[in-house]
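queue> pop job 88
queue> type: inverse folding (structure -> sequence)
queue> payload:
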C-alpha cells in the first residue's frame, strides 16, 4: 500500500501500526530501557557493598563514640581513648572516600541515562512530524508513493533493454573470438626488380555499413549497422547500431547504440535515445498509487552506459505533455488526476545504476509534488488537521502504553543511587561525630595535664 492517504477512509491507528518499525522513538526507548536495566544490574551490588561498609563503620565506631571524657581519670586513659577514636576516624574516612567515588560515578551514570531518556522523548516529536507528513500534501509523500511503482516499471523496461543489449554485445564478442586478434603480416620477398613493402593490416571480416529504410505499422523506419568486425582493434571506431522511427502522428524515436570491443576501451556499450511527441499509456503500472490509466505525450532523452567491469548507469530526462488519468482512485488519486488534467506538462528526471560490487542506486525527481499541493489544498484544509490530530493521539497512546514501560527500571535505579548518596551523607555525619569526640578527649587530656604539672605547657596530643 503506498503512503498516499485517502482522507475520507483515514485510520490513524492502522497507519501507526504500519509505520511502527520505522519510528525513531521505538528504537530510542528500547535503547534507554536497556541502559536503565544494565545500570540497575551494575548498581545493585555496589549499593549493597556501600551500605555494608557504612554499617560496619557505624558498628566499629560505636565504642569510640560511647567514650565519656568525664570518666577519664589520667593521661594514660586519655591517650588510649584518643588513639581509639583516631583509628575510627581513619576507618570512616576510607568509607567516605569510597562513598564519594560512588556518588561521582552515579552522577555520571544518571547524566548519561537522562540524556538517553531525553533523546527518546524528543524522538516522539520527530515521529509525530514523520507520521503527519503522510497527511500533508506538501510534504513530498506523493512522490514517495509514486517512486516504487515507477522504479518497478523502469526496472522491468531496463531489464528488457539490457537483455537485448547484452545479446548484441555477446554476438559481437563471439565474432571477435572466432578470429585471431591480429592478422599475420605478409613477409616481403624480392622478385626480380619488384619489392613488396608491408601494407596495412585489415580484419578478416569487416562490415562497414549496412542500412535499410522501410515503412511498417504506419511508421517510417530507418536502421543502420556500422563497423561490425571480427577484429575490433583493427577498426578505428567501435561497432554501432542506429534506429529511427517516425510515426504518422508526428512522433519520433531515435536511438544510437555503440558496442566497443576494442582492448583499449573500458566501456562496453552506450545507448542514447531521443523521444519526441510519442503517445504513452502506462495502463495499470501506477494503479497502486491511484493513477490507473496514466497517459500523455512523451518527449525526452535517455542514456544507458555499460562498462567492462560490470557497472551500469542510466539516466532519463522526460517531459509528459497533456498528462491524464483514466481511472483515478482514492481521495488524493482523484486530486492528482484533476491536477494533472489542468497541468500543461509533467517533468521527471530518473537516475539508476548498478556498481561494480552489485549495489543498486535509484533516484527520481519530478514536479508532481508542486502540482499536487495546489490541487489538494481544499482537501487538506478539510481533513488534514483532523487526521494529524488523530495520528498524534494514536502515537502518544502507543508511547504511553508500550514504550514508557521500557523505562520501568528507572525508579529502581533512582532508589539505588539515592541509597548511595545517603551512604555518603551517613559517612560524613559519622566522621563529624568522631571529630567532635576526638576534640573533647583532647580537651580532657589538656585539663588532666594542667592539673598534674601546673605552670608547664602540655604539648598538643594528636595532629
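queue> result:
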Amino acid at each position: 500500500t503506498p503512503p498516499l492517504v485517502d482522507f475520507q477512509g483515514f485510520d490513524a491507528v492502522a497507519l501507526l501500526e504500519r509505520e511502527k518499525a520505522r519510528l525513531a522513538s521505538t528504537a530510542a526507548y528500547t535503547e534507554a530501557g536497556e541502559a536503565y536495566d544494565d545500570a540497575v544490574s551494575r548498581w545493585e551490588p555496589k549499593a549493597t557493598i556501600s551500605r555494608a561498609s557504612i554499617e560496619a563503620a557505624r558498628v566499629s565506631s560505636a565504642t569510640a563514640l560511647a567514650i565519656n571524657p568525664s570518666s577519664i581519670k589520667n593521661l594514660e586513659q586519655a591517650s588510649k581513648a584518643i588513639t581509639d577514636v583516631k583509628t575510627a576516624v581513619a576507618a570512616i574516612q576510607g568509607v567516605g572516600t569510597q562513598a564519594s567515588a560512588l556518588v561521582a560515578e552515579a552522577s555520571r551514570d544518571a547524566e548519561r541515562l537522562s540524556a538517553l531518556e531525553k533523546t527518546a522523548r524528543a524522538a516522539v516529536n520527530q515521529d509525530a512530524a514523520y507520521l503527519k507528513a503522510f497527511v500533508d500534501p506538501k510534504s513530498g509523500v506523493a512522490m514517495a508513493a509514486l517512486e516504487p511503482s515507477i522504479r518497478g516499471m523502469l526496472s522491468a523496461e531496463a531489464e528488457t533493454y539490457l537483455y537485448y543489449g547484452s545479446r548484441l554485445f555477446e554476438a559481437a564478442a563471439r565474432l571477435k573470438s572466432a578470429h585471431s586478434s591480429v592478422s599475420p603480416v605478409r613477409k616481403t620477398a624480392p622478385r626480380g626488380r619488384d619489392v613488396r613493402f608491408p601494407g596495412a593490416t585489415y580484419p578478416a571480416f569487416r562490415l562497414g555499413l549496412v542500412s535499410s529504410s522501410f515503412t511498417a505499422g504506419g511508421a517510417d523506419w530507418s536502421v543502420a549497422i556500422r563497423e561490425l568486425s571480427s577484429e575490433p582493434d583493427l577498426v578505428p571506431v567501435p561497432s554501432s547500431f542506429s534506429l529511427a522511427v517516425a510515426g504518422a502522428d508526428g512522433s519520433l524515436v531515435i536511438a544510437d547504440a555503440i558496442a566497443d570491443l576494442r582492448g583499449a576501451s573500458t566501456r562496453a556499450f552506450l545507448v542514447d535515445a531521443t523521444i519526441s511527441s510519442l503517445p504513452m499509456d502506462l495502463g495499470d503500472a501506477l494503479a497502486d498509487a491511484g493513477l490507473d490509466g496514466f497517459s500523455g505525450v512523451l518527449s525526452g532523452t535517455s542514456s544507458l552506459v555499460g562498462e567492462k567491469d560490470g557497472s551500469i548507469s542510466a539516466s532519463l530526462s522526460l517531459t509528459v505533455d497533456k498528462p491524464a488519468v483514466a481511472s483515478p482512485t482514492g481521495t488524493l488519486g482523484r486530486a492528482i488526476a484533476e491536477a494533472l488534467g489542468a497541468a500543461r506538462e509533467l517533468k521527471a528526471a530518473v537516475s539508476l545504476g548498478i556498481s561494480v560490487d552489485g549495489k543498486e542506486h535509484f533516484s527520481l525527481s519530478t514536479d508532481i509534488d508542486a502540482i499536487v499541493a495546489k490541487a489538494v489544498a481544499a482537501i487538506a484544509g478539510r481533513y488534514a488537521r483532523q487526521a494529524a490530530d488523530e495520528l498524534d493521539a494514536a502515537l502518544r497512546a502507543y508511547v504511553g502504553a508500550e514504550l514508557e514501560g521500557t523505562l520501568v527500571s528507572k525508579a529502581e535505579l533512582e532508589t539505588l543511587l539515592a541509597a548511595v548518596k545517603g551512604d555518603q551523607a551517613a559517612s560524613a555525619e559519622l566522621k563529624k561525630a568522631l571529630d567532635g569526640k576526638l576534640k573533647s578527649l583532647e580537651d580532657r587530656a589538656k585539663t588532666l595535664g594542667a592539673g598534674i604539672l601546673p605552670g608547664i605547657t602540655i604539648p598538643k596530643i594528636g595532629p
